[in-house]
What we know:
Chain A has helices at residues 2-7, 13-25, 32-39, 75-78, 98-101, 120-129, 142-150, 202-222, 226-243, 257-263, 267-280, 299-323, 389-399, and strands at residues 53-59, 83-85, 92-94, 107-114, 160-163, 182-184, 285-290, 330-336, 339-340, 352-353, 357-362, 370-372, 374-375, 382-384, 387-388, 408-409, 415-416. By secondary structure, chain A is α/β, with parallel strands linked by helices. In chain B, strands 1-2-3-4-5-6-7 form a seven-stranded mixed beta sheet. Chain B is elongated, with a radius of gyration of 31 Å. Chain B has two domains: 12-99, no CATH class; 137-287, Ribonuclease Inhibitor (Leucine-rich repeat, LRR (right-handed beta-alpha superhelix)), CATH 3.80.10. Chain B has eight helices and seven strands, in the order H-H-H-H-H-E-E-E-E-H-E-H-E-H-E.
Amino acid sequence: MKNILRKIPNLDRREFLAYSAKAFLGVGLMPMGIRSEAFGAAAAPARLPTAKKVIYLYMAGGMSHLDTFDPKADRDARGPVDPISTNVPGIQISEYLPRISKQMDKMAVIRSLSSTQGAHEEGRYFMHSSYTKRGTIVHPGIGSWLMKMDGARNPNLPGVVHIGSANPGGGNGYFEQRFAPLVIGNPEAGLQNSKMRKGVSEKEFHDSVMLTNAFDAEFHNRYNQKKTRAYTDMYDDAIKLMKSRDLAAFELDDENKATREAYGTNPFGQGCLLARRLVEHDVRFVEVTLGGWDTHTNNFERVGENAEILDQALGTLVADLERRGMLEETMVVLATEFGRTPQINGNDGRDHSPAAFSCALAGGGIRGGQVYGETDTIGKKVADRKVEVPDFNATIGYALGMPLEKTVYSPSGRPFRIADKGTPIKELFG
Amino acid sequence: MAISPSAYAVDFAKEILPIFEDKCYRCHGEEKVKGELRLDSPEAIMAGGEYGDVLVPGDPNESSLYVLTTYPKDDADYMPQKGKGLSSNEQKLLKQWISDGASFGESFVHGPEPKVKSKFEEANPVNERKYTIMGDAVETVARLHEAGLQVDTVNHDASRFEINYTYAERTAGSFDFGMLADLGDTLVKLTLARTDVTDGDLAGIVDYSNIEHLDLGRTGVGDAAIEHIDKLENLKYLNLRDTNVSDVGIQRLSKLKRLERVYLWGSQATEAGAKRLEKALGEGIVILGAELRGPARRSQRT
């Protein structure tokens, strides 16, 4: 305190207040001039993160990094898959990903992910929450953290949506129910039962809602608790949504045939298209799951099939976001729970390998056309710039401008942070 | 963080050490060193273990030495993992002792720099920019909220504002940009996407010369709008996708030399028009976009 005061002679009251705000709360609203004078002009990073929304593509089962984003020269580790060049000189990826190879200039591939969790459920949980699975508490995912810290943007739509998996990991955890994701099983079916029933007039609908409220009023007054209120909130939200023009966001039929085909006529491809539509309507965090990556047997055929689905959807998604001018504010995340072993087992499969695997990022201020980190010659261990799972999530949090250093206490009083103690990889943005 | 001793300081030797001996040394002492952590000397405690520091003098909630003893007993992280746990009175003592500065008595003095477990300090946060809006702007922002506008910070910097009209339900011809006057130079981003904004409405934005980012996507604006837009000298990003602008209008943008991105997909602009503008502005700046192609059909051979 004393030191700070000595540094600022002759500041008027307003400046002093601004200065105090900066010094004690870490925030400020002063003109740039004062800021640089008082604090010494700190070199700003070349590019600041610009993300406001996230499309999070989750490869459930453990995507083989060797057969997708980290192809190896070593013949034994590589198996029958050849690498191909991308639109960025010097970066090669698997031949399974020809469309993605043409979007590499917008993507950053991280080849040095490392997880401590080698089982699916645990790995998935860790990837989504930055915390290892515990019996006594459930941790929130990044989408719910975003809702908690910064709220929704579209007042009529949920802020977090999960597509394609009933149990994707990363729910609201110990946060209130209103921060929970809306789960959509089948993207083509869209949001079920969300339209007003035929033959019910606005007035009749209103009356029946009022009647429900009247019946519930006493109960709600007597049990004015979080869960009871959550129920009421849910009704209110549902009614708002039913009447909203934003409901159109769920209508994949509004897209032309060429676009729908370009994303791939499969649930994941259509899920990615739905994700794009939702983000266009300012939904902030959409997760789409593609399963089937647990390739203990018949690895190459199965990864080949899955990669084709991923390649088409992600390759199209990045291009589509770019032409719509959405890539600046939308960060696309490709994540999985772990990679697969360089050793090919007796069933022509690859087993779990949490020690080293690949993920990718695009948009939201990410500098495209880069590879971060490196594995050893066979892709078994991280050789350079290891990225722990919390670091990866901290990078997403940083992109979204979330206060990573802030400690939040669960209802039981336990301290948690958005990405535990992860450190963001700022170099990816510069 | 200032450490203020409570009126009745907890005595380490008399009150805390017995707890350690009874509950902790079984696994974190001379005989066993679980998690690379020993608790049988002040130096060892301050050195921490496998997962870093365990004690932050003055901050019990940052000290796993204390926090883990308060977890539910069946939690995987609960301490002690073996034997009886700390009673609530013992927990209270430990917490108080840490709050008071975790003095080990005269034999050990903490260094002048209090150790901080967290990688982040208040003075050195990961993000220098904050969502938190302060000062005079609080009032301004509240008023804009009330008017139905969304206010965001740009690049998560609370001295640069984005105003979003998308959910404000303004009708054509009634866009009241005058109400943004209090933001002045701090208004750098304006989002009018999906609104009913008209070419004429946009006459009201020309005074906000610090606007760097303007989103008019999916609106009905046309070439007449550009006669206003082209006065925004600091414009870097302009989204005109799914609008009625054409080759004629967009050529006026060639004088905006700071433009880094212009999006024209779904507008009336043609490839030739986009190319002409790009020639004036620079390569890669004008994005017209192509129709997405379906999957390559392997059977099709020419």
